[in-house]
Write a structure and sequence with these properties.
Layout lengths: L1 H28 L6 H23 L5 H15 L3 H12 L3 H29 L1
Helix pairs in contact: 1-2, 1-3, 2-3, 2-5, 4-5
Length: about 130
């Protein structure tokens, strides 16, 4: 159990730092569109969780620590919908309802599509 906790913790650190770097990069380049960092992270995270889940279904011989460290640790630290919710509220409060609803729709539909694409790619590869 200690090894599993260590794998999730280490993965969480990596995922959190990747998320932080992505958000800072996007904000530095497009400050008005601050939410694009979270959108990119959520879409990439959904694609990766679909891909990894599909690959791990085909490769159950991989260590539990590796599988859990990547999915729960790295991707759990990388993606978040709490920021997503707060950003939608900020957009709405800022009078940017059209952007808020577009962001909402692209995040949810894009995430579902990306997860499906990841699973499909994993199934094609196996």
């Amino acid at each position: 159990m200690i090894a599993l906790i260590a794998a999730v913790s280490a993965g969480g650190i990596v995922g959190t730092l990747l998320r932080f770097a992505t958000a800072n990069w996007v904000t530095a380049h497009w400050p008005r569109h601050f939410y694009l960092g979270t959108l990119a992270v959520n879409l990439v995270g959904c694609l990766l969780i679909g891909l990894l889940s599909g690959l791990f279904l085909a490769r159950s011989d991989l260590p539990l620590e590796l599988r859990t460290g990547l999915i729960t640790g790295v991707l759990g630290g990388f993606t978040t919908f709490s920021s997503f919710s707060l950003e939608i509220i900020k957009l709405m409060e800022g009078g940017r309802a059209v952007e808020a609803f577009g962001y909402l729709a692209f995040s949810i539909l894009g995430g579902l599509l990306a997860a499906w694409a990841g699973l499909t790619l994993a199934r094609l590869a196996s």
